[in-house]
Amino acid sequence: MERYLPRLVDRTLGELLRSHPAVLLTGPRATGKTTTALRFAKSAIRLDRPEQAAVVSADPDGALIDLARPTLVDEWQISPEILGAVKRAVDSNPQRGQFIVTGSVRGDLDSPTWPGTGRLIRMEMSGLTPAELSRHIPRTPVLDRLADGDLSQLRTAPPRLSLRDYLGAALTSGFPEPALRLDGRGRVRWLDSYVEQLLTRDLAEIAERRDPARLRRFLEVYALHTAGVADLTSLASTAGVSRPTGDAYHRLLQNLLVVQNVPAWWTNRLKRLAKSPKHYLVDAALVAAIVRVDLAGLMRDSDLLGRILDTFVMSQLRAELPRCDSRPRLYHLRDQDGRREVDIIVEYGGGRVLGLEVKATSAPKPADGRHLSWLRDELGDRFIGGIVLHTGARPLSLGDRIVAAPISSVWS
Prior knowledge:
The longest helix is centred in the middle third of the chain and has 23 residues, at 184-206. Strand 12 and strand 13 form a beta hairpin. The protein has two domains: 10-124, 3-Layer(aba) Sandwich (Rossmann fold), CATH 3.40.50.300; 130-410, no CATH class. The strands form three sheets. It has a six-stranded mixed β-sheet, with helices on both faces. Helices cover 40% and strands 16% of the residues. It has 17 helices and 13 strands.
């Protein structure tokens, strides 16, 4: 067997199993949920195996009897009736650490009639991060270290990275298979195959028959606008589909957990803030595969380069959220005129705010933090700090409560 690569969620998953009867581990397909869950499970029901899915369909409650706990129930969406059986098992015996349920489809997780409500503690698992790939996971997540506004808690671990290094890391992908076992053409082919299966096989699990060609066009337009606030009407029009069709496609992609919205931040201290969410694909390499661009192509396209970097940074921060004790929430900020914009807003309890800007520059200047300075002046004590994440090697001060730091400080 291959040596297990420790994941950011390991400690949190172990803690949840020691305090709750069942945990729901969600995330895009192929992010390593099953491999991680099997490290904690003593038995497993693999619903992607037809013979096991048939047993569950015939007798979901009986399928759980006499299995050693914790029991892994893998890919619940293939046989959703298993959730009712898990609910009944937990209701009759609320002992801790009984089930780990994994899934790659959002489905009806937020529905008030969903069987897992009040029984399953949900935790999201993201793709691999550079910290995991290097096997040097900081004990305290960076967002926890910054929760009190101490910007000196930013760290930068060697080696020093350039713009090309960061783009290379982004194009490596957070999916374990291409990140750990493939390179070059093999990685591109794997990502192309992932997109193809997404548009055909995975789609069939959650929706009636759709037109894969039109959905592909919509996904390509969406990828070109990752880390952007373009409204769905514009995206649908560019893709050549109606607004209702674009809305339906967007919901499908959300249900498959490959796109995510970051909501707009709001406060009554500021006027005329835009309310549109920021749209992201969950993996920067997936963006590049969808729009068929490589590192050389990114170096010639400053707009897409900036979107890839933003998407890459957001994916690192999202991966850290499940293990953050400070319980931060991620937003973005943009005014209605588009004159002021902060790429990422981190909001802590009590309305305290940390602002992040992502810049493709190795020599940041105070002007790169001007929107953070504006936000600091508007919010006063609620603004605990601003960081310009850049592609250079050194941290430096850009003013009161504002610093510039290498992008690698996010995972160092």
